[in-house]
UniProtKB/TrEMBL annotation:
CDD domains, A to Z: HisKA (cd00082)
Keyword vocabulary terms for this entry: ATP-binding, Coiled coil, Kinase, Membrane, Nucleotide-binding, Phosphoprotein, Transferase, Transmembrane, Transmembrane helix, Two-component regulatory system
Domain Histidine kinase positions: 249-476
Biological source species: Halarcobacter ebronensis
Gene3D superfamilies, A to Z: 1.10.287.130, Histidine kinase-like ATPase, C-terminal domain
Record carries keyword Repeat: no
Alphabetized InterPro entries for the sequence: HATPase_C_sf (IPR036890), HATPase_dom (IPR003594), His_kinase_dom (IPR005467), HisK_dim/P_dom (IPR003661), HisK_dim/P_sf (IPR036097), Sig_transdc_His_kin-like_C (IPR004358)
Protein name (Swiss-Prot/TrEMBL): histidine kinase
Superkingdom: Bacteria
Reaction(s) catalysed (UniProt annotation): ATP + protein L-histidine = ADP + protein N-phospho-L-histidine
Length: 483
């Protein structure tokens, strides 16, 4: 207990010494800096007065020659500035030597400068008087060496005062070094001894903490792996839902070409049944049509396969190509629901991204619009989706997808991108689609997706619908792939 009390007393003495030296050093250095700043400003302003005395004379002569009102206004501003700065110099004459320069009979620089101001003021009242111009010019020539003398005097005074303050700096340095030495003897050494006594305890405590941290790290890694697996499942769920939608789209797209092929086959069989001769040209036309329809079916298979394949590579991707491929996949399904697709894809941008992921996000938005449009009464309302691109600048593209399905309730507008949040019946809504849109656009491609309700007119009728705004940014660095 006695050792602790003694150590506290020593700490207090050294601490008070350090505080005292700190305040002394602070006020001394502050005085040095303040003085240097004032002298620097005085030297600068006195030099500026010298320059302004010549500049005002030249401008006054120029005004007399040109009668330019703008130059006259500028001259008035310079005269006012010169007067203000002269007053500043007078207010900061902190030595007798400088006061002698400005106020003694030998120099009396203040009187000389005020005489120059008086000539300038007379000229402003009558700027057509050549005699005043001559007086100003002669006066400025005689004033210049006196102003030079004042500048030199300020510089010598500054140097003198700075040398005096530097002696104080040396005194502060020696006192600070002594205080530090006392601190080392009276505080540091006893503290080192005390620290050594506690090192063993700290080492034991650290070992215990390391074990706990290792356990916490293992737990965090496990949780991260679980989150990663959940994201993977979440993505796969969204993919499966999109696949189901695509299968429906494929069915719609295949109906017409299959109908054409069956019609051709039925026509051939009918002619054969009635014993009609099949001409070579007819047969070629039949086979040509069958070949075209088969190619169309093959392309839809390729489009579907590319989407299902789920290429995870990020590469240079044109947004217009992604939009067009998306439309090819969903167009037949939209037509079967009597939904009109209005597109304006003129502006384009190339980003570093994953075409498959972006395509899935756009399909989810369009499906959301379709689900709201099929509820509309076709006799009373049109069913329409608008897709438009707009280039904000060379590195930014805005894609809007707008429908006329009535919009989204304001109460749930902030929640539609939440995972598993849906207002639809369980048979058509899972709450995954729009959440996946947000993840793909915002997290995977560092873009922006937002939604708002918009009122508009289409074919002379007013509508309201949900408007999804997707913003893409051009990037040159690759982005992380999905798990």
């Amino acid at each position: 207990m006695e050792n602790l009390t003694s150590l506290k007393v020593t700490y207090s003495i050294v601490f008070l010494s350090l505080i005292s030296w700190a305040f002394f050093a602070y006020f001394t250095m502050n005085q040095i800096i303040t003085t240097q700043e004032i002298y620097a400003k005085l030297i600068n302003i006195s030099g500026k007065q010298r320059m302004l005395s010549q500049k005002t004379t030249l401008i006054a002569k120029r005004v007399f020659e040109t009668k330019d009102n703008k130059l006259l206004s500028h001259l008035e501003e310079l005269i006012l500035l010169m007067k203000d700065e002269h007053q500043f110099l007078l207010n900061n004459l902190n030595t007798q030597n400088m006061e002698d320069v400005y106020f003694t009979d030998e120099k009396d620089l203040d009187k000389e400068v005020r005489g120059y101001f008086e000539l300038l003021d007379n000229y402003l009242k009558n700027n057509n008087d050549a005699n005043i111009i001559s007086q100003i010019e002669n006066y400025s020539y005689s004033l210049l060496p006196k102003l030079d003398y004042a500048v030199n005097k300020f510089e010598r005074e500054s140097e003198k005062y700075t040398n005096e303050l530097k002696n104080r700096e040396l005194f502060i340095l020696l006192g600070t070094l002594l205080t530090i030495f006392l601190e080392a003897i009276l505080i540091v050494i006893p503290s080192i001894i005390k620290i050594k006594n506690t090192e063993t305890k700290l080492k034991e405590l650290n070992e215990s903490l390391e074990e706990k941290l290792f356990e916490q790290k293992e737990m965090i890694l496990k949780e991260q792996e679980e989150i990663k697996q959940k994201e993977k499942v979440f993505y796969e769920q969204s993919k499966l839902i999109s696949m189901g939608e695509m299968i429906g789209n494929i069915a719609h797209q295949w109906r017409q070409p299959l109908s054409v092929i069956t019609t051709i086959a039925s026509g051939i069989n009918l002619k054969l049944d009635y014993g009609d001769k099949i001409e070579e040209n007819d047969l070629r036309n039949f086979t040509h049509n069958v070949h075209e329809q088969a190619n169309y079916l093959s392309k839809t298979i390729d489009d579907f396969r590319n989407f299902i394949k789920g290429d995870q590579n990020y590469k240079k991707t044109k947004i217009s190509d992604v939009i067009k491929n998306t439309i090819n996949l969903v167009n037949a399904s939209l037509k079967s629901s009597n939904i009109t697709l209005e597109t304006k894809i003129e502006d384009d941008i190339t980003i570093f991204g994953n075409e498959n992921e972006i395509q899935q996000a756009l399909i989810n938005i369009i499906k959301n619009a379709k689900d709201s449009l099929v509820l509309l009464n076709e006799r009373e309302n049109a069913r329409v989706i608008f897709i438009e691109t707009k280039k904000i600048n060379r590195n930014e593209l805005e894609l809007t997808i707008l429908d006329n399905g009535g919009g989204i309730n304001d109460d749930i507008m902030d929640r539609i991108f939440e995972p598993y949040f849906t207002t639809k019946h369980a048979s058509i809504g899972t709450g995954i689609g729009l959440s996946m849109v947000d993840k793909i656009i915002r997290e995977r491609h560092k873009g922006l997706v937002e939604v708002k309700n918009r009122e508009f007119t289409y074919k002379e009728k007013n509508y309201k619908g949900a408007c999804f705004i997707v913003t893409f940014y051009k990037r040159i660095m690759p982005l992380p792939t999905l798990p």
